[in-house]
């Protein structure tokens, strides 16, 4: 009973903190970045990670097995995996833009696990003997880690495609506007003078779209790394699942040939 009460407390604490954190992230992104709020959001992410970890540990102790027996526990573990990816990317990247991808993924996953599922699915059940295998736990945990990495990598790739597509649209529109205006002889002199002024200004050439270039480079780098990591975990999970299935098959045939 104590662990059940602790589980409910940690669930509501983690969901409340991460709701505040994502609000702060969107405020910093869309309105104005405040250093104090940014530091508070990072502390909130760490507090939420420890809350979810404590939730998984309490369910592990109360149920007696690793908490991956139903959809609720799997989603909580997936949310914890997204937190780990967020913390690692934050330590290695030292930028705040990747958290716009990882933080919403975490809150939506945990929000669906907390409020989107029925109360009966939150209850931990006793596993049948066929599921009480370390290979199965290894298989499920590796698969969920791969899902988290592939989800982040896919979202980063989509963000990269959106930014690149918008840049191409802007360039195409400007090129068409230049071609249309070039047919008017009165505009040719104006365009030539404007072009000379632009090329004489080195700061314009040095810093125009520099932030977008850095952002696209980071998105390309991290999307590639996340997808590669996801397929690595996916391969390990599939191999562990194959070993578990073979083990269960051998045990099943032995029980038929040599019944107790």
UniProtKB/TrEMBL annotation:
InterPro entries, per the entry: Cyt_c_assembly, Cyt_c_biogenesis_CcsA/CcmC
Main location: membrane
Keyword set, alphabetical order: Chloroplast, Cytochrome c-type biogenesis, Membrane, Plastid, Transmembrane, Transmembrane helix
GO MF: heme binding
Signal peptide range in chain numbering: none
Annotated localization: Membrane
Annotated transmembrane regions: 12-32, 44-62, 68-88, 144-165, 222-245
PANTHER family according to UniProt: CYTOCHROME B_B6 PROTEIN-RELATED, HEME EXPORTER PROTEIN C
Name of the protein in its database record: Cytochrome c heme attachment protein
Natural source organism: Heterospathe cagayanensis
Higher taxonomy: Eukaryota, Viridiplantae, Streptophyta, Embryophyta, Tracheophyta
Gene: ccsA
């Amino acid at each position: 009973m104590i662990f059940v009460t602790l589980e409910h407390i940690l669930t509501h604490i983690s969901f409340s903190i991460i709701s505040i954190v994502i609000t702060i992230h969107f405020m910093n992104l869309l309105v104005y970045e405040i250093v104090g709020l940014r530091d508070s959001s990072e502390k909130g992410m760490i507090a939420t990670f420890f809350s979810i970890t404590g939730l998984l540990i309490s369910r592990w102790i109360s149920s007696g097995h690793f908490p991956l027996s139903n959809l609720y526990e799997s989603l909580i573990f997936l949310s914890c995996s997204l937190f780990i990816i967020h913390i690692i990317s934050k330590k290695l990247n030292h930028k705040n833009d990747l958290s716009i991808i990882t933080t919403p993924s975490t809150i939506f996953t945990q929000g669906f696990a907390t409020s989107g599922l029925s109360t009966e699915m939150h209850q931990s059940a006793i596993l049948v003997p066929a599921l009480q295998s370390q290979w199965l736990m290894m298989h499920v945990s590796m698969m969920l880690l791969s899902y988290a990495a592939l989800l982040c990598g896919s979202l980063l790739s989509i963000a990269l495609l959106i930014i690149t597509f918008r840049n191409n649209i802007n360039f195409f529109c400007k090129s068409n506007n230049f071609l249309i205006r070039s047919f008017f002889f009165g505009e040719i002199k104006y365009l030539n003078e404007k072009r000379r002024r632009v090329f004489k200004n080195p700061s314009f050439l040095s810093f125009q779209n520099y932030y977008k270039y850095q952002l696209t480079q980071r998105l390309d780098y991290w999307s590639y790394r996340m997808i590669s990591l996801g397929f690595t975990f996916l391969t390990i999970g599939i191999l562990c699942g194959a070993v578990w299935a073979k083990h269960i098959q051998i045990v099943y045939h032995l029980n038929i040939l040599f019944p107790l």
